[in-house]
Amino acid sequence: MTDQAVRCYRHPDRETGIRCSRCERPICPECMINASVGFHCPECVREGRRAAQAAEPRTVAGGSVAGDPRLVTKILIGLNLLVFLLARVEGRPFVTALGLFTPCYVPDSVQCGVAGGPGEWYRLVSSMFLHQEFAHIAFNMLSLWWIGGPLETLLGRARYTALYLIAGLGGSALVVLLAPETLTLGASGAIYGLFGATAVFVKRLRMDMRPVLILLGLNLLFTFTWGGISWEAHIGGLVVGVIIAVAMAYAPRSRRALVQWGTCAAMLLAVAVTVWAGVANISA
């Protein structure tokens, strides 16, 4: 046996009598990793991990399959219900503190609303979890359970959470741009994003689209015919939800994560630009 054969393949200056039990390459004590039988080299361990990851079950969109496929939906419903109860107990001041509006509507008050600066930007998110009326919270939470649960199963937790939150922000951003002085609240923008995403995945999976299109059409009809509904939040959420869902449903497998998360980042940038334009319009 030559001198080369008894030296670690990663550290040629170290002699060794141990070989990887998979590839038979000589390895020194620093390189050998305990295995069920013998020792493995770092490269064989990495290859084994990659093979194990490739064998893990994945959702349609490439996410990890979770033990409870509706966990995020349950958490979102729980948060909405908690904020609703607080709003019922605390009353109007609580709603005013969390609701979405751009400029202050109280004369001579301190700066408030989204135009008040970074300290008020939380309203873009807090308003998504705020409801006042029983009918409002009941309709939105039932919709979230019926639409969100199956969609979470298709996407996986991380992608579903991103879709929900960014769609909700899209609704808030369009309100800031087009209806800045209206106090707006509710999860409808995010839920309309889920409606749009459901339509995209029904198309992607070649299922019958008529039920979801009828449901979406009826909701849009109510949006534009019933009073007191923020169509801006609904349309903003719907558009953002559709765009993100297209990326998640049709991204090429070889670049799936890049396309999906890149699209989410692009939508966040679009939200920021829209909010900036709305605030600038008020300040002008």
Automatic annotation (TrEMBL):
<dbReference type="GO" id="GO:0006508">
    <property type="term" value="P:proteolysis"/>
</dbReference>
<dbReference type="Pfam" id="PF01694">
    <property type="entry name" value="Rhomboid"/>
</dbReference>
<dbReference type="InterPro" id="IPR035952">
    <property type="entry name" value="Rhomboid-like_sf"/>
</dbReference>
<feature type="domain" description="Peptidase S54 rhomboid">
    <location>
        <begin position="119"/>
        <end position="248"/>
    </location>
</feature>
<dbReference type="GO" id="GO:0016020">
    <property type="term" value="C:membrane"/>
</dbReference>
<keyword id="KW-0645">Protease</keyword>
<feature type="transmembrane region" description="Helical">
    <location>
        <begin position="235"/>
        <end position="251"/>
    </location>
</feature>
<feature type="transmembrane region" description="Helical">
    <location>
        <begin position="212"/>
        <end position="229"/>
    </location>
</feature>
<feature type="transmembrane region" description="Helical">
    <location>
        <begin position="258"/>
        <end position="279"/>
    </location>
</feature>
<dbReference type="InterPro" id="IPR050925">
    <property type="entry name" value="Rhomboid_protease_S54"/>
</dbReference>
<keyword id="KW-0472">Membrane</keyword>
<dbReference type="GO" id="GO:0004252">
    <property type="term" value="F:serine-type endopeptidase activity"/>
</dbReference>
<dbReference type="InterPro" id="IPR022764">
    <property type="entry name" value="Peptidase_S54_rhomboid_dom"/>
</dbReference>
<feature type="transmembrane region" description="Helical">
    <location>
        <begin position="185"/>
        <end position="205"/>
    </location>
</feature>
<comment type="similarity">
    <text>Belongs to the peptidase S54 family.</text>
</comment>
<keyword id="KW-0812">Transmembrane</keyword>
<protein>
    <submittedName>
        <fullName>Membrane associated serine protease, rhomboid family</fullName>
    </submittedName>
</protein>
<keyword id="KW-1133">Transmembrane helix</keyword>
<feature type="transmembrane region" description="Helical">
    <location>
        <begin position="160"/>
        <end position="179"/>
    </location>
</feature>
<keyword id="KW-0378">Hydrolase</keyword>
